[in-house]
Amino acid sequence: MEGASSSSGGIAPLPPSKFGKYITVLSIDGGGMRGLIPLVILEFLEKELQKLGGEDERIRISDYFDVIAGTSTGGLIATMLATPKDKEDTIKRPKYTAKDITNYYKDLGPQIFKSSWWGTIKHWIWGPKYGDGKVLHEAIQTEMGELMLSDTVTSIVVPTFDVSLMAPIVFSSFNNDRRPITNQLLSDVCIATTAAPTFFPPWTVKGRRDRDGNPHILNLIDGGMVANNPTMLAIGAVERQIVKENPDFFPVVADSPSSLGNPDVSKSEGFKRYLILSIGTEYNRGHYSLDEIKNKGKAMWAIPAIDMLMCASEFLVNFNVAIFFQSQGDPENYLRIQATDGTFQDKKLPLDAASKDDIRDLQRIGADLLDKTQGRTNEITLRFTSVNEDIKNRDALEDFAQKLSEERQYRIQEQEKYFANKLPEEHENEGANGISINENELGEERL
């Protein structure tokens, strides 16, 4: 791919979005072992990007996205996609391919979700189903080590919920400002966002310090309690950076959607500047009849209530983002991939479905989903239904990969032209892709 490699032969870092036409976002829903479904989609996308890059197997998904957001299992996938091989490298490269993460799930899933009759009883009466979560925690800590939010190869956004504050806590590479107060361990972020109530215990980390210098203690649970579909959280994180006038997000090229880097113009562009891929894990949404629920007591309402809250949250995010794109931007620049209503009705797999047969079924669902017709939330029926029988998700992903490839090439070319026109004395530091750049001009890549 033209512009994919640096002058030194490595993969060039993705230039800030101010050099491009779009802000690129990847969002991955929560869903436990159902994370294997979006992983099938991500493996396909990564192969398409490598194909467009001249069959270069060094290319990774994080080479194309400004922000990767994930909730619960999606948060773990997002973090792994952005985890560096070596944080000390001048040009940090991602450690994992999408296939690597799939194998990680297949190998560790059965160990993490090893059920027993005692665990099932505890699940319904007292205590988390999987005890202290030691297997999950140690697996994540082993992979992440001492890596921090500030070490990610691209920005991530991962939600959790604080049970003591009764408020969402959203971890973001944008907000860590490289200080220990806010710059959390990636392992803590992943363990917290995957701490599903009744399955795993809450996870405690130290947060910002108060006026007396004492750290707030955060007692965190699964990010699905905040937003199982984190797309709007990712958009909000970016918009906050635009409000703060982060220079990475102000266009500097004349024919970009926001002309000449005018902050007022940038702030008004809204969804026109976004290119978003959002992947769901839901494939067989249950429905409740009035007779099923009308006489239920508090205990019997537990599962239906959680199902309804998760579905409502996921629906509202997807519906609102789709409407925003239709009214303010290009609807084709928002791609949501999940099963349309009425598909995959043969089996419903819970978030801890981790047997060999379950894993095979989840990967089959992901593979079948590639060949399903592209879907979109219908504003009248409120159902996620097919848009065009002739367009499969596979086709939509190929088109999306092409847009990502073109955006990356465009940014690299515009960055090269921009700095080539600057005076030699303004080139204070050598850039990662072999072009001299001024730190003050670029600003911090992740705040």
TrEMBL record:
Region Disordered: start and end of each range? 424-447
Is tRNA processing given among the entry's keywords?
no
Q: Which Gene3D superfamilies match?
A: Cytosolic phospholipase A2 catalytic domain
Concerning InterPro entries, the annotation shows:
Acyl_Trfase/lysoPLipase (IPR016035), PNPLA_dom (IPR002641)
Q: Where is this motif: GXSXG?
A: 70-74
Q: Where is the active site?
A: S72, D222
Motif interval(s): DGA/G: 222-224
User: Domain PNPLA spans what residues?
Assistant: 26-235
> What GO MF annotations does this protein's record show?
hydrolase activity
> What is the name of this protein?
Patatin
